[in-house]
Amino acid sequence: MKKPALCATFTATAAVLAFLLSASPAQAASKLKVVTTTEDLAALAREVGGDHVEVEAIARGYQDSHFVEAKPSFILKLNRADLLIVVGLQLEIGWLPPLITQSRNPRIQLGTPGYLDVSQFCEVLEIPAGQITRAMGDVHPLGNPHYWLEPQNGRRIAQGIANKLADLRPQEAAYFQQRFQDFSNRLTAAEKVWDQRMAPYRGREVVTYHRSWPNFAKRFGLEVVGYVEPKPGIPPSPSHTLELINMMRREKIKLILVEPYFDLKTPNAVGRETGAQVVVLLPSVGGEKEVTDYFKLFDYDIGLLVAAFERTK
Ligand SMILES: [Zn+2]
User: Fold this and answer.
1) Which of 51, 128, 138, 178 has the fewest CB atoms within 10 Å, i.e. is most exposed?
2) Among residues 148, 145, 171, which one has the least CA distance to residue 160?
3) Nearest to 120 by CA among 88, 143, 97, 152
4) pLDDT tens, 163-196?
């Protein structure tokens, strides 16, 4: 029987991959190749991995990591990886599983030592009670996957990655643990600054587009009182938007925070109707060019928030 064209293409791709792999034999002293699903995890892996690892992210920081368009280059990255680090909680479920399968890399399959889901280390909020479903397209069925937006969780993720790198390369364990300790110390110093900057605005009420900020809000004392999306992953509807406008007028909400990958049409309309300001806040490293690491992400967002709170006193 004749194979479908797609299957033939895939076989050819697999052959090319196999050739590339055989052309670059693994060396014992080579750097560990780490692939992360997001730039946030890549930033944390670089903090603890230093120059003993090569780190590449799949999703870009200005993309919605729930919905990433799969590209053949991702399969090649995964094919070569020694370690795959994921956010988990089904954040990547729409695009990652087929890529892992197609990578044909036994080292990073689910359940192997080269597959690391860092949600296990973190405080996860909004875990649904009762039956777990993706009812009405809710993309947070296992709890909120945007947990990296809180420095304590960032520290936990970094520690988990350091431990995993040490497991994979026991002879380099002291290096990774030292890098983690240094990162943790710098994070402690940065947290003091961030907490001080945000302290005057504790209790401020905001609306956000997507449910990206529960960990951030809890940490810095903000109250998220509404969302532009009716449910995570569901675009704004006229009836929900009207309810939101009425609530914001009643409660005098002055700030709408929007992730950079969402259309500003509805947030701007809500802003016009309520007098609230729209601020594009970054949920990820790489959301803007200058946001190149985990520290700069909080520096950037807190800088924007402080300015916005001052404008809307
Ligand atoms: Zn989400």
Assistant:
1) 51
2) 148
3) 88
4) 999 999 999 999 999 999 999 999 999 999 999 9
Neighbours of ion ligand 1 (CB under 5 A): 232
Amino acid letter, 232: P
The 10s digit of each residue's pLDDT in 127-164 is 988 776 666 678 899 999 999 999 999 999 999 999 99
Q: Smallest Cα–Cα separation from 149: which of 232, 59, 212?
A: 212
pTM, 2 dp: 0.90
Strand order of the sheet with strand 255-258? 223-227, 205-208, 255-258, 277-280
Q: How far is the CA of 296 from the centre of ligand 1 (A)?
A: 21
Two structure tokens written together for 305: 């928030």
**Ligand 1 center from residue 17 Cα (angstroms):** 33
pLDDT average, residue stretch 39-43? 98
Classify each residue of 259-279 as buried b or exposed e, where b means 16 or more C-beta atoms within 10 Å of its C-beta: bbbbeeebbeebbeebebebb
The two three-digit tokens of residue 173, written as one number:
């364990």
In single-letter form, the type of residue at position 45 comes to: A
Give 154's Cβ-side CA count (13 Å radius).
Answer: 29
- CA of 235 from ligand 1 middle (Å) equals 12
Q: Do you know the residue count of the chain?
A: 313
The predicted structure's pLDDT at residue 129: 83
